[in-house]
TrEMBL record:
This is MFS transporter. Residues 13-426 form the Major facilitator superfamily (MFS) profile domain. GO terms for cellular component: membrane. Gene3D superfamilies: MFS general substrate transporter like domains (1.20.1250.20). It comes from Mucilaginibacter psychrotolerans. It is found in: Membrane. Its main location: membrane. InterPro entries: MFS (IPR011701), MFS_dom (IPR020846), MFS_Na/Anion_cotransporter (IPR050382), MFS_trans_sf (IPR036259), Sugar_P_transporter (IPR000849). It is a multi-pass membrane protein.
Amino acid sequence: MAPTKSVTYRWGVVALLFFATSINYLDRQVIGLLKPTLEKQFNWSETDYGHIVMAFQAAYAIGLLAFGGIIDKLGTKMGYTISIVFWSIAAALTAVVKTTLGFVFVRAALGLGESGNFPAAIKVVAEWFPKRERALATGIFNSGANIGAVVAPVMVPWILGVYGWQMAFILTGAIGFIWLIFWRMFYQTPSKHKKITAEELVFINSDTSEATVANTPETKIAWLELFGIRQTWAFFAGKLLTDPIWYFFLFWLPCYFASTFNLDLKKPSLPLVIVYTATTIGSIGGGYLSSWFIKRGMPIFKARKTAMVLFALCVLPIFSSRYATNIWQAVALISLAAAAHQAWSANIFTTASDMFPKQAVSSVVGIGSMAGSVGGILFPMLISYILEVNKAAGHITAGYNIIFTICACAYLAAWLIMHLLTPTMKPVQLHEKDV
C-alpha cells in the first residue's frame, strides 16, 4: 500500500542528504574555478594541477574503501558526522597553503573526508526507502552535487573578486558546520526515530525480499566476502569506467571553456551554470524514470538496466563537440552528457541497494566508489598528458577532442560489462559472520 500524504518524514531525510551533497561538491569544485588564478600565483603547469587532482582522488579512493566499512559499523549518523567535520576543516585549511606541495596534502585531506558522503547517503536511502522509491530518492539527493556545482561558478568568482582566493576556501568550508547542526538535531534511523509514524515504518520495510536473517540489525557482514561476489564486481566496473568522466566535468570543464572559448572565470559563468543545472534535471529525472518503469510493472533489474542504457546513449553526442563553432553549441552537447551521467549515477548507486542487504550497502558503495576514484586518478594522468602534448604542438582544442571521444564511449562499455556480470541483478544472500 502507498502511504498517505502526511507520512513523509523520509523525504525530509532526503533533504538533509541533498544539502550535504551540495556542500560536498561545492567544496571540491572551488579549486577548479580558481585554477587560472592559482596557476599564475604558484606557477602551476597542467601536470602540477593534475598531481593535485590525483592527490584528491587517491585519498578519496582510500577513504571510500575505509568509510564504507566504518559507516556499516558505526551507523549513518556518526559516520556522516565524522566525514563532514573532517572535510570541512580540510576545505577551510586550503586558504593557508603556500606551496604546490601544500595543495597536494590539503586536497588529499579533503578527499579523505569527502569520501564518507556517498556511502553514508546511499545507506540512509536503503534504511529509509523501499526499493521502488530508492532511485528517485537517490536522484534527488544526488542532484545536490549539481546544485553545488551550479552555486560554485556564481559564488566563487564573486568571493575571489571581492575578498581574494583564500576567503573562497574559508567561507565554503564553513558551510558544512551549519549543516552538521541540523543533522545532529533531526536525524536518526527509522526504527529509533520518535517522529516517524507506524504507517511510514511499515511502508519503509515493505520489501519482503529483505525480510531475512541476513538483513536483521544484529547480523554482521564479513567485508572480504563481498569481493567474491559477481554483483560487487558489476558495481565496481560500472563506477570505474564512468566516475572519471564526471571528475573531468568538475575539474577541467571550466578550463576547457576558458581555453577554447575565452570564458572569463573571474566573472559568474553562465555556461557552467547551464551545464550543472542540466545535471540536476538529469539526476532527478533519471531516478524518476526507473521508478516509473517499476510502477508500471517492469521488474526492478530490467527497469534499472533499461534506464541506464538509455542514459548511456545520451552521452554519445558529446563526441561531436569537436565540431562546435561557438560556446553555446558546446554547452548544449556537454549539458546533455553531464545530465545523462547524473541520471546514470542515480541508478547505478541504487543497484547496490537492489542487490545487497542494508547491512552491506555502505561497504559495497565504498568499494565501487573507490574503483571510480581509481579511475579518477588514472584519467587525470591521461588528460594531463594529452593536453600537455597538444598544447606544446599549439593544438589545445585537439586535446579536448580526444578526451570527449573517450567520454562518449565509456558508459556503453560500462553497461555492457555490468550486464555480462549480472544479467538479472539477482539479490545477494550473504552469510552471517562476525566482522
